[in-house]
Automatic annotation (TrEMBL):
Organism lineage: Bacteria, Bacillati, Bacillota, Bacilli, Bacillales
UniProt domain Polyvalent protein metallopeptidase: residue ranges: 127-199
Stored Pfam families: ArdcN, MPTase-PolyVal
Entries under InterPro entries matching the protein: ArdC_N (IPR013610), MPTase-PolyVal (IPR041459)
GO terms assigned for molecular function: single-stranded DNA binding
Residues annotated as domain N-terminal: 2-85
Organism this protein belongs to: Alteribacillus bidgolensis
Protein name: Antirestriction protein ArdC
């Protein structure tokens, strides 16, 4: 199976100091933006605004440790979390390091017909950084067309989220959408993702 690759350029959550994107579960914990720890902010001469609350990011990796009884090396999961602040909204005295790249595309007429022809459609927003369907709000957010190197990838991303929205309780009431507290990577989540991918590839 080919691993998923984020097809849009701008947005997403990154570490402000390194500009490296946060990955795995952190993409669900953070909205798009540039984040830094309290220490990183202080060292750079910034200041967290009064009353602002931090966000949690998770770091984990495998550590190798020798078993004291048999001398064999074993892998142990190492997990810790950090508290971070979004520097553009929650911090004073720091400037964004992010470089924005945009692309000029003409809309694809046939794809626009599919998008606009969705009856009883959810609400749409077009903010950079995250493609997601919110079942409780019945709302899709898709990064704008200008954030995609290829127009086809924009529509593929949009249609993927549109398929998820068909599972809303007012439509097909699909288990993968209406079930509360679905965990990332579990069977219900995985089946719903498979449904979305199968539909847009047919």
């Amino acid at each position: 199976m080919v691993p998923w690759r984020k097809p849009w350029i701008n947005g997403g959550a990154v570490n402000w100091k390194t500009q490296k994107p946060y990955r795995v579960i952190n993409t669900f914990l953070l909205e798009a933006g540039e984040y830094a720890t309290f220490k990183q902010i202080q060292e750079a001469g910034g200041k967290v605004k009064k009353g602002e609350k931090s966000h949690i990011v998770v770091f984990w990796k495998w550590l190798e440790k020798e078993d004291e009884e048999n001398g064999k090396m074993e892998k142990i999961p190492y997990l810790r979390y950090f508290r971070v602040f979004e520097i553009n909204k929650q911090v004073e005295g720091l400037n964004s390091k992010r470089k924005h790249v945009t692309f000029n595309h003409d809309p694809i007429e046939k794809a626009e017909e599919v998008y606009k022809g969705y009856m009883n459609a959810p609400d749409y927003t077009f903010h950079s950084g995250k493609a997601v369907y919110y079942p409780t709000l019945d709302k899709i957010n898709c990064p704008p067309l200008k954030d995609f190197p290829k127009a086809e990838e924009y529509y593929s991303t949009m249609f993927h989220e549109m398929v998820h929205s068909t599972g809303h309780k007012s439509r097909l009431a699909r288990k993968g959408v209406i079930t509360e507290n679905v965990a990332f990577g579990d069977d219900v989540y995985s089946k719903e993702e498979l449904v979305a991918e199968m539909v847009i590839k047919t």
